[in-house]
Structure formats: structure tokens, C-alpha cells
Amino acid sequence: MSQELNVNEPDVVIVFLPEGAAELGRLRRARIPRIVVVGLNAPPPTECDDLEEWVRFPEDASDFLSRLNELETRLASEFRPVPQLDAEDALHLGRQFVHLSTRDAGLLKPLIEHFEDVVPREELLATLADGARIAALPAYITRLRKRLWPFGLTIASIRSAGYMLGYGRVPTPDM
Fold this sequence. Notes:
By secondary structure, the protein is an alpha/beta fold.
């Protein structure tokens, strides 16, 4: 299966409310930076996080640019989104995505659920439908590491404990 890496989308998404309410929910779950433009008679958002700014439409251009600059400043300060795995076995990280095999997605799911925390080897083995032995797990992890490398993600092997998914690019994908 060829790797599809989508990096051509904007860093900050503009969402109009109330029309874009569903899209706003998806962007929040995916931790994608956004500016919410609220319609004249629509209520403002009741919840915002560090990746969201909102303005009322019609807005003064200088106010809008000020909100955009504030959001970009926060993004530059080491923001790193948590990876997401969708129902079609596609890994999403911010605005990037890649389609994975069923086996790779199965292995990745508990690693994402425990992002930057150790997942025991036995828990990862339980995701493999073909009854793979623990000796085969390192080969599967090596394959998955190569798929995650373009995202700046690594899977660390934690001696006598398991594996941990996190950030940390290595020089080459030849793990």
C-alpha cells in the first residue's frame, strides 16, 4: 500500500458558526488550530482551548489579524497534536494523514490511547489477529516505525516493559 501524506492544507482553519458547528467539533477533537467566525446573531462558543480564537462577523480586519497572530504565537511554542486513528485505518496528525494496514492500525490503536505512556507487549500482541508470537512483535513495530517516521513520531522500546509512542524524529527511517 502506498503512503499518502497530505501536507498541503493550511496551518489554521477558519470555521463559520453556526453553519460549521460539526466541522468545529471535528477540528477540536483532532486538535487542529482554528479561528471561529461567529455570525452576527449567533451565540459565541462556550468552550475554547489553546488552539482556538473566535471573532464576531462582521469583524474589523485588524482584530481578525490580531487573533490570528495570537494563535500562531501559541502554535510556535512547541504545540504537538495527539495522533488520531479513524475508522478507515488512517492515521491523522494535525493536517497530515496516512492510510495504514489493518495490522498496523491495530498495533497503533493502544499506542495512541496511551500516547507518551508505556503499553505492555502483551497488550500489543492481543491486537494481532493472526496469533503472532512475542518474537514477531519487533518486526511489526519496525514496519510501523517506518510508517510513522514522516510525522516525527517514534515508537520507543522500553526494556522489560513494552513500547511507547511519542515525538522524536530519528535521522533515517531505517529502524
